[in-house]
Write a structure and sequence with these properties.
With 297 residues, the chain is α/β, with parallel strands linked by helices. It folds into two domains: 6-116 and 284-296, ATPase, nucleotide binding domain (Nucleotidyltransferase, domain 5, 2-Layer Sandwich), CATH 3.30.420; 126-278, Nucleotidyltransferase, domain 5. Helix content is 34%, strand content 19%. It contains nine helices and ten strands. The protein has helices spanning 38-56, 95-102, 112-123, 185-189, 191-198, 210-230, 245-259, 266-269, 285-294; strands spanning 6-11, 15-23, 26-34, 61-66, 107-111, 132-137, 141-147, 150-151, 235-238, 276-277. It has a five-stranded mixed β-sheet with strand order 3-2-1-4-5, sandwiched between helices. It has a five-stranded mixed β-sheet with strand order 8-7-6-9-10, with helices on both faces. The radius of gyration is 19 Å and the shape is globular. The protein binds adenosine-5'-diphosphate and zinc ion.
Length: 297
């Protein structure tokens, strides 16, 4: 066992985190690569893993948890590619092909949020569960879903950030900033949407600012939709915006008000502090999830 080691990549829109190790207590090396072009970004990742293999020996497998939209279907001709995206240069980028040609080892590939969900399931807040959601609220909003013990892909993969939620334009005249849908959930509630609506970065909004009440209401509407359609056993909320503790407590209250007792589980009616939770792995869910994915490759 001693020589078994894995590589993991959490591919984000602003940075790629590459790590080498086997578990939360055994990350032997880690680096952050700014997300520029696919050639440059993946090239730097390959260099990092090449150097690491010199010091730690050959990896057993790689795991990649990457921003999307992407093609996670191994039987598809575009498996492992980024699908058309507004992100400059990344449409149709062949992420897995590039890594495969550098490393002739098994490579597991999934969305960033499915990866984070898998990390939380392996080592974090979702241990032992079989149906739950990992939602990130940051630059974008996205959800990873495990259902009956399997990460869900389906047609492509879920796009939980782009659901439509009620938008009362009298209470909130902001038109929304999703380039596809304007006022979908992400268009109303991502970090950049908050920044545009209030004219300041979300991290600078004080805890008593009305922004948080509105944000919590939107997040709670989305969660009510997920709870009623998917029946998750817990919901883990990460991301820069999502990890604000004062937001989570408002979200919990709003979810109870919106569901109005209908989803009749003590998890919601009485134990909601343990039902809507922050990631057990804090900011490391994605990176550790990539390592956990590698272990399944
Ligand atoms: P990314 O989604 O790019 O991986 P983050 O999850 O950190 O990265 O999300 C970045 C977004 O979250 C930005 O819009 C930023 O303004 C916002 N953000 C980061 N930290 C906080 C914070 N402490 N409170 C509120 N918003 C934050
Ligand atoms: Zn949208």
């Amino acid at each position: 066992m001693g020589s078994v080691i894995f590589g993991g990549i959490e591919g984000g829109g602003t940075k790629f985190i590459c790590a080498v190790g086997t578990s939360p207590d055994d990350i032997r090396r880690e680096t952050r690569i700014p997300t520029t072009t696919p050639e440059e970004t993946l090239g730097q990742a390959v260099l990092f893993f090449n150097e690491a293999e010199k010091d730690f020996g050959r990896f057993s497998a790689l795991g990649v948890a990457c921003f999307g939209p992407l093609d996670p279907n191994p039987d598809s001709p575009t498996y492992g590619h980024i699908l058309p995206t507004p992100k400059p240069g990344w449409s149709n980028a062949n992420v897995i092909g590039t890594l495969k040609s550098a490393f002739d080892i098994p490579i597991a590939f999934d969305t960033d949020v499915n990866g984070a969900a898998f990390g939380e399931w392996t080592w974090g807040a979702a241990k032992g569960l079989d149906t739950f959601i990992y939602l990130t609220i940051g630059t974008g909003i996205g959800g990873g879903l495990m259902a009956n013990g399997k990460l869900v892909h389906g047609l492509l993969h879920p796009e939980m950030g782009h659901i439509m939620i009620p938008h009362d334009k009298e209470r909130d005249p902001f038109e929304g900033e999703c380039i596809f849908h304007k006022d979908c959930f992400e268009g109303l509630a991502s970090g950049p949407a908050m920044e545009k609506r209030w004219g300041q970065k979300a991290e600078t909004l004080p805890h008593d600012h009305p922004a948080w009440g509105l944000e919590a209401y939107y997040v709670a509407l989305a969660l009510a939709n997920y709870i009623t359609t998917l029946s998750p056993q817990i919901i883990v909320i990460g991301g820069g915006v999502g990890e604000r503790e004062e937001l989570l407590s408002l979200v919990r209250k709003n979810v109870q008000i919106i569901l109005n007792g209908y989803v009749h589980s003590p998890a919601i009616t009485r134990g909601i502090e343990e039902y809507i939770v922050s990631p057990g792995l804090r900011g490391r869910s994605g990176m550790l999830g990539a390592i956990a994915l590698a272990q399944t490759a």
